[in-house]
Each structure stands twice: as C-alpha cells, then as structure tokens.
C-alpha cells in the first residue's frame, strides 16, 4: 500500500541504544519524542504505561529526547540527567521523577533527584560537568528534526506519526488498530 506523501514517518527506526519498555519482540512499536519540561508531555506520560498494560507483550515503547530549549530552558539539562541516570541503570526512574517534578528542574533539583535515586554522585557530577551524554541527546533531536517534528510530545506508531493535538484517544485507537493488524 502506498502512503500519501503528506504522512510523516519516523526517520530513525528504533535502535538497540534506545530507552524502551515492553517486549523488544513486540509486533507494534510506539516511539515518543518528548521534553521533560513540556506540560503536554507530562499529561501524556501515563498513556504509554496504560498501553503497555492494555497490550502486554504486544507493544514496545521507546522514549527519545526532543528538548524544546527555546520554550523550556531546563529541558536540555534534564535530558542529560536522564541519560546520566540511564548509564547507572535508572533511566525510567529518573524519567518519571523528572515529569513528576517538572516545575523544579534547576541544577540543584536535578542533583537532588540523582541522590534520591541512589546514583553514584561523583560519577553523576563528572558526567554532567563534561556533558558526556549531550551528543546522544543531540542525535535524538536531529532524528526528530529529520522526522519533521515541531512540537512535543510527538508519537509514532510503527513509524507513522499520530496526531495527538485533540488528546490521547487517537493514539489509543491507532495502537489498538496496529495490534489487531499484527494479529
């Protein structure tokens, strides 16, 4: 089936280095480009969790960074913190903590969250000071730009963008339809 050229597709397919939840062999993949300081992303944060519960072993959820730094001055550092936590096995715990505390993403707040999660703080400080994970965040942003993303959150179901401007029901419906098609 040929898709119309107006359909926006995912430029960078899921990779082994992506942060994901659910079965890596799931027939349906949901990719989100998000920003930890974006109010709409905070509202949407529960949707992937609900979909993972609704369709166990049928979907895989991938989160990628797309900090909108012009509108959200703390989003880039928050994305770096999430990557620093990931290096210590705590990406999803930090992901949730950052969204729960979205109004408090200053440097001292981020350090406190790292401490609360029990991260090695010397390693955390060294990696943040050296911006070890900035390149990975920039690669996510570049992939998002190549996918024609202009706002967050942006979701792709099996590589095709889903319009969530009117709420999350359309995303639920698109995932359900993809799961049905996958058998």
SSE topology sketch:
Elements: E1 19-22, E2 28-34, H1 39-44, H2 46-54, E3 59-65, H3 75-86, H4 91-100, H5 107-116, H6 121-129, H7 134-146, E4 154-157, E5 160-162, H8 169-182
Parallel strand pairs: 2-3
Antiparallel strand pairs: 1-3, 2-4, 4-5
Helix pairs in contact: 3-4
Strand content: 5-15%
Low-confidence stretches: none
Q: Strand order across the biggest sheet?
A: 1-3-2-4-5
Helix content range: 40-55%
- Mass-distribution shape: globular
Structural class: alpha+beta
Radius of gyration: 16 Å
Question: What is the H-and-E element order?
Answer: EEHHEHHHHHEEH
Average per-residue pLDDT, rounded, comes to 95
Structure description:
The chain is of the alpha+beta class and 183 residues long. The protein has helices at 39-44, 46-54, 75-86, 91-100, 107-116, 121-129, 134-146, 169-182, and strands at 19-22, 28-34, 59-65, 154-157, 160-162. A 5-stranded mixed sheet has the order 1-3-2-4-5. The longest helix is centred in the last third of the chain and has 14 residues, at 169-182. The mean pLDDT is 95.
């Amino acid at each position: 089936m040929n898709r119309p050229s107006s359909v926006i597709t995912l430029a960078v397919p899921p990779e082994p280095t992506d942060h994901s939840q659910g079965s890596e062999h799931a027939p349906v993949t949901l990719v989100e480009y998000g920003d930890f300081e974006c109010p709409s992303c905070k509202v949407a944060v529960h949707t992937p969790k609900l979909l993972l519960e609704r369709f166990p072993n049928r979907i895989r959820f991938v989160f990628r960074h797309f900090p909108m730094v012009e509108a959200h001055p703390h989003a880039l550092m928050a994305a770096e913190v999430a990557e620093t936590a990931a290096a210590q096995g705590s990406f999803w715990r930090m992901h949730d903590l950052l969204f729960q505390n979205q109004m408090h993403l200053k440097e001292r707040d981020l350090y406190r969250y790292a401490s609360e999660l029990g991260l090695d703080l010397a390693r955390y400080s060294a990696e943040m000071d050296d911006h070890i994970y900035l390149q990975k965040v920039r690669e996510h942003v570049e992939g998002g730009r190549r996918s024609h993303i202009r706002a967050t959150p942006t979701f792709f179901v099996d590589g095709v963008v889903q319009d969530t401007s009117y709420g999350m029901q359309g995303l639920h419906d698109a995932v359900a339809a993809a799961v049905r098609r996958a058998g």
